[in-house]
């Protein structure tokens, strides 16, 4: 008998877990459809109207049980707040990198390279690349491309003073035309052949000593900050200088990447075909939007997994809190529930009444947690390591989709936390309950 009961409980928990996973994955229109069906049942059927009547009695008594009820609200708010904040971090990082690229530009790397850090493009390959089909021309008829170097340097973080990695990029003068979204917002551009740098607005805020006019030592040489630029993407986290000056300072004899402005909507296809047809160029090409999207995938997935795991652990705690609270509520209202049963309320309306009460508390907790996450974290700037082992400054992005996900988690917790107490209320013997004080 005990073994059967244990197996039944295990099966119930397993089915609930599967149901919760399915519930969290449901799109909004399916959830809306289910809500409409439940609403119609409550309003148009006799058991539904009895459920509403019983639920009103329980909800009316919430102020007398506010201390216990707040356990559910606060617990679920904590789960939703942490979950949404973690997912907002991943979404913000991914949005920053995805927004960095464009379908009108392409990046060339050494064949098989996944990022600039492990790519090498020799100097004699650059003239060959500039003649390929699909490469746009500038106003002077020159190939619109920028050969680039990426050097990781250490700079003190503004908040703590501890060293962190920053990306020091060497670019040609053509880089400004290839990336028209980048504009100088303070000072001026660097001069070619001089140890001058311009810094992204995110880097200026992230690191110390990057204000215009300041001098800093990089590669055992003094560099002067002459300007600040804004791009609204991952380049905001970088420091730029003339490529030949950077190559000389760090003894770099090859390039790492070439960023190209494509010639029309068929430019990428033409460029890829031309690269594949030239045996001298064992290089890979991607649109920059594809390249930066791939760079964000790994970290975004890791953050999502961590957020889900942490949220699940907290959700288990919130479920137990809801179970304890609702079991206590059912025990405290035993005589009230038994009286309703005695005057004609059957088991289903009683179950639904307790479930509606729990779901209301869960809804309040979900809204509170989502609101806190949005007020505290939406637009909050942080930095993390990117694909080139340098800091990328980005903002948390609390989107409507994430808030909706948090709300579904809240309702799922309320569903599990209220189900067993509701079933207990429906099975409560009337005569026994009426004798309880």
TrEMBL record:
Domain ABC3 transporter permease C-terminal residue range list: 309-429
Stretches that traverse the bilayer: 5-22, 28-45, 66-89, 305-330, 350-377, 402-423
Ranges for domain MacB-like periplasmic core: 71-277
InterPro entries per the UniProt record, alphabetical: ABC3_permease_C (IPR003838), MacB_PCD (IPR025857), Macrolide_Exporter_MacB (IPR050250)
Membrane topology, as annotated: Multi-pass membrane protein
GO MF term list: transmembrane transporter activity
Localization per record: Cell membrane
Keyword Membrane: yes
GO cellular component: plasma membrane
Name used for this protein in its record: Membrane protein
């Amino acid at each position: 008998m005990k073994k059967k009961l244990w197996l039944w409980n295990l099966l119930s928990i397993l089915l609930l877990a599967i149901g919760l996973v399915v519930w969290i994955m449901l799109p909004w229109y399916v959830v809306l459809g289910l809500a409409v069906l439940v609403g119609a049942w409550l309003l148009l059927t006799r058991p539904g109207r009895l459920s509403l009547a019983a639920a009103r009695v329980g909800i009316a008594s919430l102020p007398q049980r506010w201390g216990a009820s707040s356990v559910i609200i606060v617990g679920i708010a904590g789960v939703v707040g942490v979950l949404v904040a973690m997912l907002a971090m991943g979404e913000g990082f991914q949005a920053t990198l995805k927004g960095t690229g464009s379908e009108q530009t392409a990046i060339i790397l050494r064949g098989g390279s996944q990022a600039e850090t492990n790519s090498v493009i020799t100097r004699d390959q650059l003239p060959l690349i500039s003649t390929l089909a699909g490469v746009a021309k500038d106003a002077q008829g020159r190939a619109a491309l920028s050969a680039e170097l990426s050097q990781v340097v250490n700079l003190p973080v503004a908040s703590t003073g501890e060293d962190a990695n920053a990306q020091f990029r060497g670019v040609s003068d053509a880089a400004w035309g290839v990336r028209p979204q980048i504009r100088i917002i303070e000072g001026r551009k660097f001069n070619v052949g001089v140890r001058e740098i311009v810094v992204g607005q995110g880097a200026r805020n992230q690191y110390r000593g990057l204000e215009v006019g300041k001098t800093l030592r990089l590669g055992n040489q003094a560099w002067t900050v002459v300007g600040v630029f804004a791009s609204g993407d991952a380049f905001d986290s970088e420091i730029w200088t003339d490529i030949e000056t950077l190559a000389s300072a760090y003894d770099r004899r090859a390039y790492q990447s070439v960023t190209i402005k494509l010639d029309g909507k068929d430019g990428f296809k033409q460029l890829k075909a031309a690269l594949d047809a030239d045996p001298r160029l064992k290089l890979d090409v991607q649109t920059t939007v594809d390249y930066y999207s791939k760079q964000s995938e790994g970290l975004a997935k890791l953050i999502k997994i961590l957020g889900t795991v942490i949220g699940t652990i907290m959700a288990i705690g919130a479920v137990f809190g809801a179970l304890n609270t609702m079991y206590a509520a059912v025990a405290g209202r035993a005589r009230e529930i038994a009286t309703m049963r005695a005057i004609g309320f059957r088991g289903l309306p009683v179950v639904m009444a307790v479930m509606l009460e729990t779901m209301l508390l869960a809804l309040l907790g979900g809204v509170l947690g989502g609101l806190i996450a949005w007020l505290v974290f939406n637009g909050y700037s942080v930095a993390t390591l990117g694909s080139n082992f340098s800091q990328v400054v980005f903002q948390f992005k609390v989107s409507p989709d994430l808030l909706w996900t948090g709300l579904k988690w809240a309702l799922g917790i309320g569903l599990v936390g209220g189900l067993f107490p509701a079933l207990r209320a429906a099975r409560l013997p009337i005569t026994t309950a009426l004798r309880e004080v």
